[in-house]
Amino acid sequence: MRESTDDRLPEDKPLEIAGHVYSSRLLVGTGKYRDMTETAEAIEASGANIVTMAVRRTNLGQNPDEPNLLDVISPDQYTLLPNTAGCYSAKDAVRTCRLARELLDGHDLVKLEVLGEEKTLYPNMTETLIATEELVRDGFKVMVYCSDDPLLAKRLEDMGCVAVMPLGAPIGSGLGIQNRYNIRLIVENAKVPVLVDAGVGTASDATIAMELGCDGVLMNTAIAQAKDPVRMARAMRLAIESGREAYLSGRMPKKLYASASSPLDGTFF
Fold first, then answer.
1. Which candidate in 13, 32, 91, 111 is catalytic?
2. What are the angstrom distances between the C-alpha of 130 and each of 135, 142, 257?
3. Which residues neighbour 265 within 8 Å (Cβ) at sequence distance 6 or greater?
4. What letter does residue 123 receive in the DSSP assignment?
5. Are 110 and 82 in contact (CB under 8 A)?
6. What pTM does this model have?
7. Count of other CB atoms within 10 angstroms of residue 63
8. How many C-beta neighbours within 10 Å does residue 13 have?
9. Mean local confidence (pLDDT), 105-119
10. Most exposed: 44, 47, 173, 256, by fewest CB within 10 Å?
């Protein structure tokens, strides 16, 4: 459990994933930007340490005649997180992770996502569990996109995932955190980092995720599809920091009725 039921404040622990400590709790993607220059500027403004990219849609060197993402997102500056976006079966997801490891000289940290269908991009948890088992057995460090089911999230942790990443709302929807209760349950029962993945639309959504006790937030569309992606990236950076500080501070209890901000004892009337 992350925190007890008494009045103690949550423990302020750094974000550690697969043995590495990160200063930023914001993870960002590389898709949907206008060009590579905007991609690089927005990612820099976000302050992110971890950058994810879809292996099936991004040139990481497999197409020598096309622009290479690694020319603007340096592995020396960022931790790369290849993902399996666009995969609808465990077989395809495992194959994609192995391709990424080959392209990135043995890189073993991956984001696993196995989708159920195109309309909602909701995770196919049956295939996700199959892929997780094979990837962990093959030595990968798996950060897994999953449903907001607390029991399945715990099972993925027990299988060896280094982070669980429940969706806050469908990918690219911008609906914000629609399932606060479930995410809170996942956070309270996890011993590995929990990061909201998908659904964030604006800065307040990211703050809510952090106030729920999440260790971080991964986003792409909310930044890339903003009218000013670089400015939105800065906003998300501040939102993550603000939400984390609020969570660690311990918010006041909610009350049914008002209570005076100033004490009435000792007043002159």
1. 111
2. 9, 13, 50
3. none
4. B
5. yes
6. 0.90
7. 10
8. 10
9. 94
10. 256
